[in-house]
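Page 37, continued from 36.
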């Protein structure tokens, strides 16, 4: 029962992490314009994401523009896109694999060993998915931080971390933690000892065995 509860907890955490990775990938707030400087402009807030850039006016109106050409984008942004999409696809595969190996599901009930292996495999794929998302978000955040502290970057073009980065970091951590719980939910095999040999019972002598 304990391993089943740990398995269910791991799946829920990993699934929530996978949903968070999808939300983070779709959000345009990967970096937001910084107003730290002498010339502070508060009329609009600028955001940039993996797929579009947005500008929010002081009235609350948001205008977004999808990036025109894939070939015009920086190679680092293309790599971040690829890692996040790979994390989503791996998470989708991990969901189906882990569900098959869950103890509460009736799939593969006739072979418990293979069922446990499927749950562990799903956990491993969840961990890989979380690592891909963690690498993508950390790489993007490192680029934002380096550009912010670069003295040659104009003050009006500096950006800070957006909310999508924080969601991505939290989601990647949940996916890896849940995957680790799935891997640890497999019960250890008990050591099997050979059955004890039975000794013949002493039959009471009737006195007829001796001549």
């Amino acid at each position: 029962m304990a391993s089943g509860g740990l398995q269910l907890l791991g799946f829920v955490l990993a699934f929530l992490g996978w949903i968070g990775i999808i939300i983070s990938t779709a959000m345009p707030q990967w970096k937001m314009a910084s107003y730290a400087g002498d010339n502070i402009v508060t009329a609009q807030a600028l955001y940039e994401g993996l797929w579009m850039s947005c500008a929010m006016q002081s009235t609350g109106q948001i205008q977004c523009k999808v990036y025109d050409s894939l070939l015009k984008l920086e190679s680092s942004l293309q790599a971040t896109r690829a890692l996040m999409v790979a994390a989503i696809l791996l998470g989708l595969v991990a969901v189906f694999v882990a569900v098959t190996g869950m103890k509460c599901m009736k799939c593969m009930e006739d072979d418990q060993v293979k069922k446990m292996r499927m749950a562990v495999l799903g956990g491993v794929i969840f961990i890989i998915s979380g690592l891909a998302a963690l690498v993508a978000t950390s790489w993007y955040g490192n680029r934002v931080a380096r550009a912010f502290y670069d003295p040659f970057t104009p003050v009006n073009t500096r950006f800070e971390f957006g909310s999508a980065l924080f969601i991505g970091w939290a989601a990647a951590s949940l996916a890896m933690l849940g995957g680790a719980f799935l891997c640890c939910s497999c019960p250890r095999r008990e050591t099997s000892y050979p059955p004890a040999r039975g000794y013949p019972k002493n039959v009471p002598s009737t006195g007829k065995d001796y001549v």
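The longest strand covers residues 52-57. Flag for discussion at group meeting. The mean pLDDT is 82.
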